[in-house]
Amino acid sequence: MASLWIASLVLCSVWGARGQTERCSGYEATNVLEADSYLTADLTVIGNCSSHSSDIEKLRLLVEYQTDSRLHVLITDTDDQVFQVQEHILPRPRSQNSTLGTSGLRFSFTQSPFSFSVTRASTGDILFDTADAPLIFETQYIRLRTRLPSNPNIYGLGEHSDDFRLPTSNYTRTLWNSEAPFIPYKQNLYGSHPVYFDHRGESGTHGVFLLSSNGMDVKLGTSDQGQQYLEYNVIGGVFDFYFLAGPSPAEVSKQYAQVVGLPALVPYWALGFHQCKYGYKSIDDVRQVVDNYAAAGIPLETMWGDIDYMSDHRDFTTNESAYPLEKVRQLVQTLHNNGQHYVQILDPGIHRDGGYPTYTRGAEKGVFLKAADGSFYRGIQWPGVVVWPDWFHPNTQDWWTDEIKRFYNADSGVNVDGLWVDMNEASNMCDNTDCSTSQSARTWATHNGIEIKRRSPNPVPFLGVPERDLFNPLYRIQNRWGDISRKTLWTNITNADGTHQYDTHNFYGTRMAAATRNALLSRDSTARPFVLTRSTFAGVGRVAAHWFGDNASQWDHYRVTIRQLLSFAALHAVPFVGSDVCGFNKNATEKMCARWALLGAFQPFYRNHADVTANRQEFYLWPLVTQAAKKAIDTRYKLLDYMYTSLWKASADGTPNASPLWFFYPSDSNTFGIQNQWMLGDALLVSPVVDDDSQSVNLYLPDDIWYDFWTFEQKAGGGRTHRLDGVQWDEIPVHIRGGTVIAMRTESANTTAQLRAKNFRIIVAPGKDGTAKGGLYLDDGASLDVGVNKSEIVFTWDGQSFTANGTFGFATDVQVERVVILGGEGEHARPVKDAISSNE
Ligand SMILES: *[C@@H]1O[C@H](CO)[C@@H](O)[C@H](O)[C@H]1NC(C)=O
Ligand SMILES: *[C@@H]1O[C@H](CO)[C@@H](O)[C@H](O)[C@H]1NC(C)=O
Ligand SMILES: *[C@@H]1O[C@H](CO)[C@@H](O)[C@H](O)[C@H]1NC(C)=O
Ligand SMILES: *[C@@H]1O[C@H](CO)[C@@H](O)[C@H](O)[C@H]1NC(C)=O
Ligand SMILES: *[C@@H]1O[C@H](CO)[C@@H](O)[C@H](O)[C@H]1NC(C)=O
Ligand SMILES: *[C@@H]1O[C@H](CO)[C@@H](O)[C@H](O)[C@H]1NC(C)=O
Ligand SMILES: *[C@@H]1O[C@H](CO)[C@@H](O)[C@H](O)[C@H]1NC(C)=O
Ligand SMILES: *[C@@H]1O[C@H](CO)[C@@H](O)[C@H](O)[C@H]1NC(C)=O
Ligand SMILES: *[C@@H]1O[C@H](CO)[C@@H](O)[C@H](O)[C@H]1NC(C)=O
Ligand SMILES: CC(=O)N[C@H]1CO[C@H](CO)[C@@H](O)[C@@H]1O
């Protein structure tokens, strides 16, 4: 075994000892201990790197064959001082004690200077190899470089608005959650997901997840020697890698979801159509919009309240003139009576005003982050001067839950169906790091801080190395705002558990989303919560859905939504995502909004939302958009159970609910760069018109059998690009992949509640071998725990007969009206007895 573990042992030379050279040579591995399923070693620095801070001289290496498809490589300081993401924030998967003999991945290393590689056992393909540059492990800068093949297919490292297949020349992905209006290219956006997929065609796909919340630049480039590389430059934390073997792309997605946590299933109603706008002047205005949708005959499922509803933009208040509580309650009641829903926004910044009960209750419980002098640390957000919840304080969850239960009390407050957390990067409107705008300085002077005692240092591990420069680290990540503390919370702030914002910044927003989900569960322990968050971190899918932030009403942002969908759903285990349909900033135009209404209908989260400075863009405002939206929603609703089934599958085992074509055709290199088409579930290929104001689309159909979703006409893909002209403004090209079965409702409805009473029609699309397979998941769509009251049905068509098999625990009166077999001499329907309530 030893010879396999140490594939390339190089005995260290004399110059390796510490102090004998000033050269930065990395580390030397000693005391190597091997067992069947793990390896440990000590790493000691050789030479002097200290490029941006001090070298950590002694490190520990732990390698675990955790499962046959997951290899864990952890490099930490021996003192356990360096920050590591708290176990309760991201619970680590335990090793299942796989062994070298059975693992799909193989670890080997060189002793001095230390480097390691990971190979695919079945092919010998080197997936990761750090030999080209010494490991650097300093207190505020860690670096590791791996070789990549030339012209690699690398995806992930979100959140970004760049090409789905990442550029690989002189390209930097900075991960540092930030306010990002207009979602600019090549910059850090609202979320951080330090995972990439490396797709190598026929030889397989693997994933590499660096479990780190520290700010980082991940660089893709070519060295002077012409070697393609990917390099991590991180301003703290440890190297905690999970290598995911795949080998199929969807298997990597599942393996990743097992590490960061399976996403939560959303309630069924969340799949309906949502409307929002920043700038609805009053509750009467909102009611009018609801009525207008009904009058136009466009099904509206959920109305949203942006910050307009608040008094002085304070959480848990209503503007008593424009949004009087009684009228808000009446509207919510009306919506509920119609089977519709209502969601409101919350921001993390809590207005610092002694007369504001949310603030005073929080202050009494000490739940806010503290400045150096012990007063509550202040910043600027919509309400003006604010303080910020410290999600690590032991009282914060209780305080937040209590505020949510008070204000969203069904009997006396706003009976929301879900909550939306925004600005949670956190976005601080101070335009410089010292936040000394005259406005803030003035207001601060009038509200003296409550005196809080400073905390004593905490002797627990992983709090972060002391004595770091938490404000201006020497290695400057390419944060879009410059200094890492700019436009957010100061990174030198200490959290209640003794860690610092410097290390925990990237999951501040995810913590807020998690606390909000917990609060909703405390408000109603049986209902499935719905939380939408702007800021995200690895694993956020466990607690929340995500929209792509403040984009604009422009064609390039319409296109960006596709690659953002692909990234979140297929690579980041966040299935319930979507854009602000018709764009947030700037004015939408009729044709673009019509196209976007159709595009959004085929993405998981479907919400029209515009900024206060933009014109209104409700679907009923233009004839073309009305027509397109009606058709879009009609079709989406018929397909809603198909979409719900794929979301359930994602929550059950991490299977992506939306994915790029190469997930299904991994050896077809034509698909690797496609980012304007997507597979929705495993059966539908969506190929929208993407060019500005165009009626033509070039769509790629892999070599397979396809059926036009709208006409059922069979089409040989041929592995080539097909041009469609004359695509009308209410049309979107969609194809059914041969070999699949789709359960559709026979008709649409005005609400998802009504939809649930409609019967099914089953579409069978035989593949090349004449067979087809698909599934349908049914439950009440609302309960957190449905227990046995669910149906997991598998449909099979063997070319002769149709079978519905599985479990049928969900009681329903809904029938399957017919089964339609596509192909042959055209569509022919077969009568079925009842494919969803019995095992025939
Ligand atoms: C390493 O180099 C840095 C700067 O070049 C220097 O300040 C430091 O003292 C050196 N450390 C050792 C242990 O030689
Ligand atoms: C794996 O091995 C470790 C140490 O030998 C042991 O503590 C652990 O329970 C094992 N885990 C499983 C899943 O067998
Ligand atoms: C690499 O990118 C940076 C930042 O975009 C740019 O300033 C620099 O000129 C580029 N270098 C090369 C060699 O293209
Ligand atoms: C209430 O809403 C009105 C209308 O938008 C606005 O003018 C006013 O400033 C708001 N009042 C408060 C306290 O937010
Ligand atoms: C953070 O650093 C700034 C600038 O040096 C300083 O003014 C502030 O007091 C520090 N805050 C904390 C909490 O240490
Ligand atoms: C949007 O349209 C309004 C009026 O229709 C106009 O005042 C405003 O300048 C436009 N905004 C942009 C960004 O073009
Ligand atoms: C929706 O409601 C309208 C008006 O009440 C009605 O005319 C229409 O048929 C309904 N549509 C569906 C699909 O039920
Ligand atoms: C399942 O349904 C039965 C019958 O409606 C009900 O009594 C039971 O409580 C349900 N179980 C769960 C876990 O919801
Ligand atoms: C039907 O499903 C059950 C388990 O749900 C399985 O044991 C059985 O083999 C399946 N039958 C067919 C014909 O697929
Ligand atoms: C991703 C993207 O399209 N970003 C653009 C958003 O809009 C701003 C302003 O119009 C552009 O500068 C960005 O390039």
From TrEMBL:
<dbReference type="Pfam" id="PF01055">
    <property type="entry name" value="Glyco_hydro_31_2nd"/>
</dbReference>
<dbReference type="GO" id="GO:0030246">
    <property type="term" value="F:carbohydrate binding"/>
</dbReference>
<dbReference type="Pfam" id="PF21365">
    <property type="entry name" value="Glyco_hydro_31_3rd"/>
</dbReference>
<feature type="domain" description="Glycoside hydrolase family 31 TIM barrel">
    <location>
        <begin position="263"/>
        <end position="645"/>
    </location>
</feature>
<dbReference type="InterPro" id="IPR030458">
    <property type="entry name" value="Glyco_hydro_31_AS"/>
</dbReference>
<dbReference type="InterPro" id="IPR011013">
    <property type="entry name" value="Gal_mutarotase_sf_dom"/>
</dbReference>
<dbReference type="InterPro" id="IPR048395">
    <property type="entry name" value="Glyco_hydro_31_C"/>
</dbReference>
<dbReference type="GO" id="GO:0005975">
    <property type="term" value="P:carbohydrate metabolic process"/>
</dbReference>
<keyword id="KW-0378">Hydrolase</keyword>
<dbReference type="GO" id="GO:0004558">
    <property type="term" value="F:alpha-1,4-glucosidase activity"/>
</dbReference>
<dbReference type="Pfam" id="PF13802">
    <property type="entry name" value="Gal_mutarotas_2"/>
</dbReference>
<dbReference type="InterPro" id="IPR000322">
    <property type="entry name" value="Glyco_hydro_31_TIM"/>
</dbReference>
<keyword id="KW-0326">Glycosidase</keyword>
<keyword id="KW-0732">Signal</keyword>
<dbReference type="InterPro" id="IPR017853">
    <property type="entry name" value="GH"/>
</dbReference>
<comment type="similarity">
    <text>Belongs to the glycosyl hydrolase 31 family.</text>
</comment>
<feature type="domain" description="Glycoside hydrolase family 31 N-terminal">
    <location>
        <begin position="92"/>
        <end position="214"/>
    </location>
</feature>
<dbReference type="InterPro" id="IPR013780">
    <property type="entry name" value="Glyco_hydro_b"/>
</dbReference>
<protein>
    <recommendedName>
        <fullName>alpha-glucosidase</fullName>
        <ecNumber>3.2.1.20</ecNumber>
    </recommendedName>
</protein>
<feature type="signal peptide">
    <location>
        <begin position="1"/>
        <end position="19"/>
    </location>
</feature>
<feature type="domain" description="Glycosyl hydrolase family 31 C-terminal">
    <location>
        <begin position="654"/>
        <end position="742"/>
    </location>
</feature>
<dbReference type="InterPro" id="IPR025887">
    <property type="entry name" value="Glyco_hydro_31_N_dom"/>
</dbReference>
